[in-house]
User: Fold these one by one.
Assistant:
Number 1:
Amino acid sequence: MASNAPPPPPAVRSAGPPAPPTGPTRRTGRARRPGTGPRHGRGDRAALALMLGVPALLVVGLVWLPAMATVLLSFTRWDGIGGLETIEWIGVQNYTDAFTIYPPFEPALRNNLVWLVVLFTVPTLLGMFLAVLLDREMRGGSVYRSIFYLPVVLSLALIGFVWQLIYSRDQGLLNAFLALVSDAPAVDWFGNPDINLYAVLVAAGWRHTGYIMLLYLAGLKAVDPSLREAAAIDGAGPVRTFTRVVFPALLPVNLVVVVVTVIDALRAFDIVWIINRGRNGLELISALVTSNVIGEASRVGFGSALAVVMLVISLVFIVVYVSTMLRGAHR
Amino acid sequence: MHHRPPGPPGLRRRALLGGLAGAGTLLALPGLAGCGTGSRDDPTVVTMASNRANPAQRVAVEESLGLYEAASGRTVEVNTFDSTSFQESVNNYLQGTPDDVIGWFAGYRMRFFAERGLISDVSDVWSRRFEGAFTDQVRSLCTAPDGRQYMVPDSTAPWAVFHRRSVFERHGYEVPATREEFVALCERMRADGLEPLASGIREGWPAMGMFDHLNLRLNGPEFHLELLDGDHSWDSSEVRSVFGAWAELLPHHQPDPLGRGINEAQTALVRGEAGMMLCGMFITHVFPEGEDLDDLDCFAFPEFDPEIGADVVEAPIDGFMVSGDPRNAEGAHELLGHLGSLEAQEIYTAIDPQALPTHLDAGTGGFSPLDAKVNDMVASAGALTQYMDRDTRPDFASVVMIPALQRFLRQPDDIADLTDTIQRQKLSIFGR
């Protein structure tokens, strides 16, 4: 899994083209002619080949090849034991089964979509709001920032475990509190399939908010203060300053936030797995893949078909993002 | 102008790369040294993988192995794994470099590994040491379709309906023998302010216990085992009657079982909030030793059909097998012979509260009243079954049955659609 450290915010593009290289000739004695780039020696080429080649080899070998193998295996029935000769080719039967007779599949697709929408709306906006609030130099600002960021440091599995203590029906904090203040019967937060997804989303959003807040804090620091001053001179209030002036200037950060949110929504797995292995209302495609392939079920072919479905869904977002980036680069 | 300010010379790029490469090689060397021969050729060492990870179980395994080491002069290196994670990763484990002796259980999985050549034939151990030591039933559970034995059993942890003796005495309850008596008892418990049946199905697999017992009582052990083997349709009227009987019993269970873990349900029994619980002997791990554990009692799941009776017992049998290509084959077979022997079983089951010995000659002298009662149940059982997730294909049990049973507990009224769904998935998995 990727580390929890946020990616460094892209630097705000400075104005003007870079200055052409000037200055004294290099100590090696080779004069640099203006207009051509530096010539690479053999040692430099070897270094470049290694630095590009080794990671590329790792990515191809550990990501691309297994992905292609997964696509191939999705057309088979295999239990992972015995050699490749025990593979049975069955065409698109796995896909047909997944879409027609496999009950957890449709809830899983729906839950992934709900996860994406909720993660986009609630924690992202809340994180942005908190970032704007904490951007000012206020007393105790760093304390608040630490408090809000602390959940990001915890792994999702640990968060699932912690929130189980809160959400447990018989022994949890929330139900104990509700029993104290009202006569409502104990709510089955994790067992009721209509509400357990949202209960889990609160726990996941609790973590996501801090992450987004940090990204926006970094982005806000990079916004040119003269923009804000100009807005203040023009008589704009704080809300209009933010929506009309600061927010558009945050475009690079917004892009990063969108990417991070989509990745986290598609990758959601740890917390539902810890709670109940992704069943009974907490189905997610990643949990279905895991329980089919990695558990004792060992339905490699069927699990691969589910994984390919997940890949196709991710590809949609990847294509949109990459084409946006490329279009932006050409401009 | 971009003059670099004067200062100490920076690390040149090539020097940095060279340094990194050198450091990497140095760090990798010890790893390469580890790929050596290891203990493969050492005849005095036997490696063992144990899936008995509870503290009491670890102590019991240690004691048993201590006896073996003293008698044979070999050393045993034990790797202990958490039972559930071991069960889930056993496929990969067996295909990697497994230990010589592996703790496992009887049933479909063992036969499956035998067919795939992942475990070794141990019939020689049986013929040498265990003729007449186990019942025919136990022997057949350790035998693969090719007629040879692949596992040596040592203990069993049967299922029954557990309750606290003191609670029954205080309210004047009597042990029910038939369905009517059982339902009447549940209603009395509910009136007395107890939850009649504790129920924790968040993990999913505990629900199989109730299905198994109802199926065994309503349709008999032959139908049950054939159903799990794929020989009957899940859409049949017999299976639907099982779900129907279960739906009638649901009001007597703890409400909202899907959010409650099995440990929380067992705790309800310990605390006296629930009257009874259908559970395995592993519930003894949750009851504190002493007064609480002595208070634990059980009875067989009641009879539903007088023609079938109530003498079939769900008794999952645990044992040991030898990996397909053991490093120390002779030592492994010898260790297996020890683990199944009377002394080892008596030592192990004395320390592990959930285990009962399977050896026919095991003395019942050291048994607590609970152990003695359960042992009687197993000894006089008309038939023995394991548990659904041990008697049938694991992909069917975990991927199809657990979600289906949880769906049943959420919506007990749509039985026809439920059995239809199960049958369709069963056809795609079993192929028939």
Note: The interface with chain A takes residues 1-3, 13-14, 17, 87-92, 94-95, 109, 116, 118, 202-204, 256-260, 264, 268, 394-395, 398-399, 402-404, 406-407, 410, 421, 424-425, 428-429 of chain B (CB under 8 Å).
Number 2:
Amino acid sequence: MLVYSLLAGLLFGLYFSLIGLGLNLVFGVMRIVNLAHGDILMLGAFLAFWLFTLFAINPVPAIAVAFAVFVIVGLPLYYLLVPRLLRAKDPEMLSFILFFGLSQVIEAAATIAFGTSERSIPGGELGAAIAAVARVFTGHAVENGPVEIFGQTFPAAWVASGLASGFAVLLVYIYLYRTKLGTLTRAVMVNREEALATGINVHRVSAIAFGIGLGLAAVAGVFAPFMLGSITPAMGAEVTVTSFAVIVIGSLGNPLGTVLGGVIYGVSYMLMQSYYSSWANLLPYVLLIAILLVRPSGLLGRQVRRA
Amino acid sequence: MPRVLRHALLVLLPVVAVFAILPGVYSNHLLLFNFIVFMMLAQGVNVIYGFTGYLPFGYVGFFGAGAYGFSLMVLHLHAPPLAALLVGAAAAVTLGLLLTPLFRLSGAYFSIANLAAALAVFQVVSNPALEEITKGPYGISLSGVFNPTLAYATALTLLAATLALVIYLRNSHFGMALQAIREDPISAGMAGINVVRERIIAWLLSALIAGFAGGVFAWYVSVFYPETVFSGEFTIFAIVFALFGGNATVIGPILGVIILYGIYNAVGISTPQYFQLIYGALIMGLVLFLPNGLVSLLQRWGIDVP
Amino acid sequence: MSLDPLLTVDGLVKRFGGFRALDGLSFTLKAGEILGLVGPNGSGKTTCINVISGLYTPDGGTIRFEGRPIGGLASHRLVHLGINRTFQIPRPFLGLSVRENVEIATAYGRNRRSASDVNTLLSALDLVAFAEKPAGELNSAHQKMLDLARALATGPRLLLVDELAAGLNPAELERVGAKLKELAQSGIALLVVEHLMGFMDQITDRVIVMNAGKEIFEGSLANAVRNAQVVEVFLGGAYAA
């Protein structure tokens, strides 16, 4: 049971790292609390669902579609909302409320458009993709079914999402630390005003980061039907809170920190589920508060937030 | 006429009078009661956000603590309602005290931590493992104290006290000090203000208000589930009402409640999704175009708003 | 007036990570004295003020005010003991009116003062015309005066002045200089950090030159400019010879 909990926690945690990745980027760059993050994820999930149901498109290519769509949506949304917001006296607090309003709008629109019933995508769809990849690497036919790791079996979808998360983190890391745009982004993360003073087009950098943040949320959404079970328009709120716990535990602005945060959360959650299941729901909140009080910069962070 | 008296006449008396008379002519007493509860909660948010700048995204935690404090006193100790109410309020203040380390955090971190704390309290209270004490997820059912008339009257009295408190804040050096702390805590320290202490006092006052609101709510309805009294809706509504009307004034939150909660009850309950859509858009518009609330329009024209 | 120093700083140390902003600074200040603090950028002048006024806790050494150690006390407690400061970049309470800015300091400072004192202070610093305006509407020179009013409203016996002269025109400079001298005459001790040497010369009795967190010279300004080490620290070795 312990080994299962640890491995399941790892996979589950990696998924939550993926969820937190976009949020981390947005908060790190703009100090904006995107309370609509979970709802973007929900939209990504529904996008994958409709692509599959209406056009029989496998979730794997849906990932690319979801990412592209939401990056494109994110850019004008940034320019619409954020520059005005940042002019206020208290942008951090107001961003809470602004994006809460946005999450309500998204949730309501989705409920009107899709109805409240639960939707899902057969797990086999993702499994087929894993099987295809495995066949390429190992040279012989691999059955589409549960994957075995260290003697424990997991749904193929979990392994797929774990791999995808790791890949996404790698891409974000390369973006931030190896590209010119990424370096500019990190400069804005550290000190927005100084970045502005050195001639960096802060709004453009932020808009792109915002778009990427939304795109990542949508990508996480594509995996949601497999990792979180069925999807409904109202699923966003809980996801948002948990993803905050993840990024806070890790650290701000550092994608590796989000991985750490996600894995810690995932493993702790699975362990709690196995041994003290009735208290498992308490875990993210307790972890969040504990980290904020003991090490507010997060486990890997250097930026300290003190009042 | 001293400003305090003028504010009291302009705001406190009319509001209390209206809500004292209305039950005689309007039969939906539960709705009137809810208006009173939300006016208290909006003022509570006003005290902590309007005056000190900290956004209590877990404000409902105090409400729920008050409700459960009241209920547990009645359930297990058969306490008379007024005594139980005091205990409920004390429970909320105790929770507030426990959360004071959160003030080391700034801005968004504080709000997230506060939200997490409220959710944690909800998880603990509604946990089946604690069914013996809190009745877990099955909810509270208080027989024997059900007295909506007396509960309503108590609520109205509590509202009057809350308004008096906010009028005091609006006109006192303490209120000014809180605003100074909100603007610049370092300068405030150099003006001789004990920033940490004043902030905590404001926080505990805010918790007290919500605690009383929760306790009297539990008394009025006498039957509720944990989700009811820990619903994020209370926090959101209270924050939006306070923001819409305008912070750091007495009348702002009241205007916010009357207008927005009024609209909600008139239109929103029948078509919840469309209402949610409009509400969300309204909130966004508020933040983008009128972040200091309705009364800021009046203040821009030089009117001294209570 | 007592002959014991009002303020004694002894071996004060303040570290930020590995960087020693203050590295064993020592000096004394008597009541009614105006002591100048000069030094190249980064020598620790503002840090010195920040530590004495309670913004930072010292990492070593002692600060004694009227004989008692005050290192590490919170700002508001220092204010109540009689210490205050102005800020290099003024930080008034922008949402409150000019009058309220001063009023709050009289209400919470040492010896709670009355409303008439607020008016006296406002007129002494030429702020009466703006009394009811929000502090955010003032220009930076007036905001500096408001900051000074805020500090004075708390009735300090030791006033730390951080680069007040920057941005003031000659007429304003003269008025401010006269005001500071007046304060000293009434028994307040002043520690003045300045870059404007003319202004410094006008008002100070003696100066301390700092470099790299420590004092390297103490005496009159006239002698300071003749001191080889001081010249080297400000202008570089080529000039010291």
Note: Chain C has a mean pLDDT of 88.
